[in-house]
Amino acid sequence: MTEEIQSTADAHPEWETLQTFAARRAPVAEHLAAGKSVRAKHPRSGFGEYVQRRRGDAALEIIQAQNATRVASLVPVRMARMLASPFAYLRGSAAVMAADLARTPSSGLNVYACGDMHLLNFGLFASAERNLVFAINDFDEVHPGPWEWDLKRLAASAAVAAIFLGGDRDHARAAAFACGEAYVRRIRRYAQMGYLETWYDLIDEETILALASPQQRRYARSIIDKARARGPVRALERLTEEVDGRPRIIEDVPLIVRETRLPNGLPIGEALDIMLRSYLASLPLDRQHLLSRYRIVDVARKVVGVGSVGTSCWLALFEGLDSSDPLLLQVKEAQPSILAAHVDHKLEISNQGRRVIVGQRMIQGSPDIFLGWGPNAGDTGLRDFYVRQLADMKGGIRLLEGDVAALGSIDAYCRLCGWALALAHAKSGDPAMISGYCGRSHAIPDALVSFAMAYLEQTLRDHDRLAVAVRAGRVAVANAKEAGIG
Length: 486
Known about the structure:
Layout: H1 3-11, H2 14-19, H3 28-37, H4 58-67, H5 75-83, H6 86-92, H7 94-101, E1 110-113, E2 122-126, E3 132-136, E4 143-146, H8 147-164, H9 169-191, H10 195-200, E5 203-204, H11 205-211, H12 214-229, H13 232-239, E6 240-243, E7 246-249, E8 256-257, H14 268-280, H15 285-292, E9 295-302, E10 313-319, E11 326-333, H16 352-363, E12 372-374, E13 385-389, H17 407-428, H18 431-438, H19 443-471, H20 480-483
Antiparallel strand pairs: 1-4, 2-3, 3-5, 6-7, 8-9, 9-10, 10-11, 11-13, 12-13
């Protein structure tokens, strides 16, 4: 066992529990049969169960509890983004759904679950070999947990997205079914593949284009071309301006703010020095050497996403040979996973940034070369964090409210997401046992539709409840321009 694998095993006692390596030496047929036998205790008929709840402000209380740990001045931005639509609300309320999923039947088969699985948490990114790959792209909540929680959240997001685009309940059902059908079909394929073959499998641009219809292919090609054009230089043009001959990050208050001190008074320069030293220690020696060639030229706080708004997130601009050789790193606070409170399996990881990166490396397959983490730095006010490149050939689908034309492609996109989720679960769990439980019929996809439609109604009700709280003045929201949704 290499030093790296040994250190991973030592740091993660759950590794053996999740992978059950010794048991996995058994023939695939035995694992398929073992998965099928789970149905006796956890029937597939229960997979679609969800009882809608008239819970008053219970969901809002979960969100407000999260807000208490966020940058106070940014909480109104978060709430404004969640208020924008039921789909935005679903994206921002992963903690609420985790609590709801914990009340549903579970097969007991664990994977490294994403924890915040929805249609916009997938996208294109550049592998280390500079190839474009489609996969999950958000790992803030990654944690060992039931595989079906990810799939149910994905299907629910598909149903809500279909309505958001202007579709009806039939469109919502079809989108949810597409997620489940693709997942079941692909996890069955991964059950028959070797471990290395699965590990190296990926969804590249040629695969995406080959699966698309002629009309979808044109749209997919445009997204791929835009992703290829995105990179540090293009991002530099968009995010910076020249001041005294040097690039400086453009402020866009309150979304991008250049600050000189942390809230506790620590100068940003001193905080960055502490952060970079601890982050460097998490990188392999070759990446340390590469990063040492760059020098930092500017830093600013940046708001990202919906559910993440209010967590500390910084954009660090580095320069190599000259201004034409930029590197943009995102330094993001890592809080405990929302799944942690709802699963029996506890990770023996003290650093939340490391949890995020270990999870990403395990289930994404082609993570960027600068992934790393750093520890909570005590009285400096620096919490656990992780680091990744901000702009490196990244791209993805855009879902615009009322875009009925996009409904023609939503099912194909949902099938792609279902495939990517199956690949992630196959890398970290036992695909044969999951496939054995799912079977070959449409039992799971059909049940998934029932769950998704019930949770669609729950989401609409919860979003309405948030709107009532805003109108009553109990929840403060930023205006559209301040929230970046105008």
